[in-house]
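Support request, priority: normal
Reporter: lab tech (M.K.)
Component: structure prediction queue

Hi team, I submitted a job for YbhB/YbcL family Raf kinase inhibitor-like protein from Enterococcus raffinosus ATCC 49464 yesterday, and the status page still shows it as pending. I've pasted the exact input below so you can check whether something in the sequence is tripping the parser. The sequence length should be 184 residues. Please let me know if I need to resubmit or if it's stuck on your end.
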Amino acid sequence: MILGIFGGIVLFIGIALAVKRQKDIVIEGIPKLNITSPAFANDGEIPVNYTGNGKDLSPELCLTGVDKNAETLAVIMDDMDHPLVGVYNHWLIWNLPVQEKIPSGIPAGKKVAELANAVQGIGYGKHRYRGPKPPFGTHRYKYNVFVLDTSLELPASANKKELLEAMEGHLLQYGYLIGQYGVN
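Reply from support: The job had stalled in the queue. We restarted it manually and it finished. Here are the results:
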């Protein structure tokens, strides 16, 4: 029994060491964008409706002071505390129309007709918002919002790395909102 438990721990550690740990998005030298949500405060608890244990709805994101030269918006949502990979991507959407409120409940699909054909890339293996659903403990979830001076010519098959590369040189503003969600 103890040998089995020890073997499982060794296997978990071995896998954790073999997997390349992902890092947080850090943007410097770009004007700050203020992000809030009526669903939760910064560093507050994300309500269950916005999680994988609830309705899995994307939360409304409110943007203050968007640059007048903005052409599109992009959002990347990450689990900051994944036990194996560090930062784990849950959602990507870009070519959102410039607006002060990104609506709640963005539907699944490669393109979102209701939002000027905004594109959802591959996050969590899907073309949709995948809300918090940690296997154990409390995790932090970071909603990164980018204000861009262009539309991106990027296929829906793109992942987070490809989106970040495509945005290089086109950022006007950047901001984020962090929420927490956990299971006991």
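Residues 10 and 16 are 10 Å apart (CA to CA). Helices lie at 2-18, 160-167. Let us know if anything else looks off. Ticket resolved.
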